[in-house]
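REVIEWER CHECKLIST
Item 1: Sequence provided? yes
Item 2: Single chain? yes
Item 3: Sequence as submitted:
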Amino acid sequence: MSGTSQRGGGQRPALPDGRDIWLPGRGRTFVRELAGPPGAPVVILLHGWSATADLNWFACFEPLARHFRVVALDHRGHGRGLRAAGPFRLEDCADDVAALAGVLGIERCIAVGYSMGGPIAQLLWRRHPALVDGLVLCATSSHFSGHRRARVLFGVAAGTSALGGVVPLRPFAGVAVSAWCRWQHLRRRPWWGFEDLARHDWAQIVEAAREIGRFDSRDWIRDVTVPTAVIVTEDDDVVPTSRQLDFVAAIAGVTVRRVLGGHAACTVEPDRFVPVLVDVCEGIARPATAVR
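Item 4: Structure as written out by the authors:
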């Protein structure tokens, strides 16, 4: 889950250099990386469902790179992310991040997760605790089922996933995205993000929605011991603000910041979201560095 719109629409924003990286035994993924100041702490950016690193974080790259080494990958099935034959699993996404850190020589990081990236960050800490110095969790929760809109989304995802076993989804998805792009072009309102959406493996996107609906960290999120911050989006109709606040209450010593905006605040309201994200990451980095 993540907003994928941009104020101003059509022109692709300036983006940092990106490259394909092979994760041994897993596959190829696409990564953006900014070096940051010498010796800077590392933040790894984990995007939301149906987004990509670029769509989710384009406004955040440069501001964060003034203080941190920044790494952002496309998750499996999303954009230019890893293509896997098996079903989509959030645990595999977390393990992909750990494998990427190994390839890049990253020993410690702050995991920054937005929406679906929140569960991936939580799982990264749980499965690879030696890697994670801190968590920044944005517009996310410990669980996603139960809310009416979420029930509809995940119910459709489950049904579509079953249909996908009989009818291949990828060709239909490709045709739909192409038609959408043509329609937008005819209306003279092109959007740079369609290029990223057209790269999705839509069967995996559907499976990812189902997996988000199954995720539940309520039994173990209280065990988090690393510095943690939660950025709450105050007008969120995808992950309700009340649920985000319940999530906050479950984490001891958590730092909480609020951003006025909906679920797409990272992209639609970057002037509000980005300064808060940078400030929170700096706050997490200070105690994490002191503990080393």
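Item 5: Key structural point noted by reviewer: Strands lie at 18-23, 27-34, 42-46, 69-73, 109-114, 132-138, 228-233, 255-259.
Item 6: Recommendation: ____
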